Amino acid sequence: MICMRMRGVMESTLVAAAMTGAGIGSAHAGLRYNMPEGVSEISRSVYSLHMAMFWVCVAIGALVFGAMIYSIVRFRKSAGAQPANFHENTAIELIWTAIPFAILVIMTIPAAGLLIKMDDTSQSDMTIKITGYQWKWHYDYLDQDVSFFSALAQDSNAARQLGAQIDLKSVDHYLLNVDHPVVVPVGKKIRFLITSNDVIHSWWVSDLAVKKDAIPGFINEFWTRIDVPGIYRGQCAELCGRDHGFMPIVVEAKTPEDYAAWLDAQHAAKAQQTAMVNGAALAAAR
Ligand SMILES: [Cu+2]
Question: Which member of 63, 127, 135, 140 lies 3.0 to 4.6 Å from 247 by CB, making a disulfide possible if both were Cys?
Answer without folding.
Answer: 135
